[in-house]
Design a protein that fits this description.
- The protein has two helices and eight strands; from the N terminus they run H-E-E-E-H-E-E-E-E-E.
- It is mostly beta strands and 173 residues long.
- It has a single domain (2-169), classed as Lipid/polyisoprenoid-binding, YceI-like (Lipocalin, Beta Barrel).
Length: 173
C-alpha cells in the first residue's frame, strides 16, 4: 500500500487554476481572466501540461472587446484552446515541502502556432499540495495574430500573461 501511495504522489492535478492577461497599449488597457485553467504535473518525470479554453476568458472592457478577442484575434472557433507542455529543466525534488524557482522548457501553443519557450516558474509545495505561479510575455507576431492598423494603438504587440493555481496529488490510477 505504501508503494502505491508513493506512486500516486508523483502526479499533481490542477484543482483551481487561473490565467490572466493584459495588454497595455497607448490608447487602451485590456485585461481578461479565465478560472478554467487545467493541468497536471508529474514530478517523477518532470513533465507537465496546462491548457485553457480560449472562450472562457472574461473581464474585458466591453462585450464588443470580448467578441473581437474571440472572433478576430484568437479565432476561438478555429483554435478553441491555448496550451503549454514541457519539462522542468532544473533538478529539484519539488515533491518535498519548500519553495522553488525553476525554469520550464516547452511548447507554448496559441492561435494554432507552437513556439518553444523557457518560462520561469515558482512552485511552493506543502504536504500533498502545490501552488504554481509564472509570468511571461506573449508576442502576437510570434503566434500569427494580426493587429489591424485601425486598432494598432489599442492593442499591445506583447501581452503580459500570469498563470497560477493550486494543485493536489491525484489518487492512484
Amino acid at each position: 500500500m505504501l508503494l502505491s501511495q508513493w506512486a500516486a504522489a508523483q502526479v499533481y492535478e490542477m484543482q483551481s487554476g487561473m490565467i490572466r492577461f493584459y495588454s497595455d497599449a497607448p490608447q487602451e488597457l485590456i485585461r481578461a481572466t479565465s478560472r478554467q485553467l487545467k493541468g497536471a504535473l508529474d514530478i517523477k518525470k518532470k513533465t507537465f501540461a496546462f491548457k485553457v479554453s480560449n472562450a472562457s476568458f472574461e473581464g474585458f472592457n466591453s462585450p464588443l472587446q470580448r467578441e473581437h478577442f474571440n472572433e478576430n484575434y484568437i479565432e476561438t472557433e478555429v483554435f478553441p484552446e491555448s496550451s503549454f507542455t514541457g519539462k522542468i529543466i532544473e533538478d529539484a525534488d519539488i515533491g518535498k515541502d519548500g519553495e522553488y524557482k525553476l525554469r520550464a522548457k516547452g511548447k507554448l501553443k496559441i492561435h494554432g502556432v507552437e513556439q518553444e519557450r523557457i518560462i520561469d516558474v515558482e512552485i511552493r509545495t506543502k504536504g500533498n499540495k502545490m501552488i504554481v505561479h509564472a509570468e511571461f510575455f506573449v508576442s502576437l507576431y510570434d503566434h500569427n495574430i494580426k493587429i489591424p492598423k485601425v486598432v494598432y494603438d489599442k492593442l499591445a504587440p506583447d501581452i503580459h500573461v500570469t498563470v497560477g493555481g493550486s494543485m493536489a496529488v491525484t489518487a492512484a490510477r
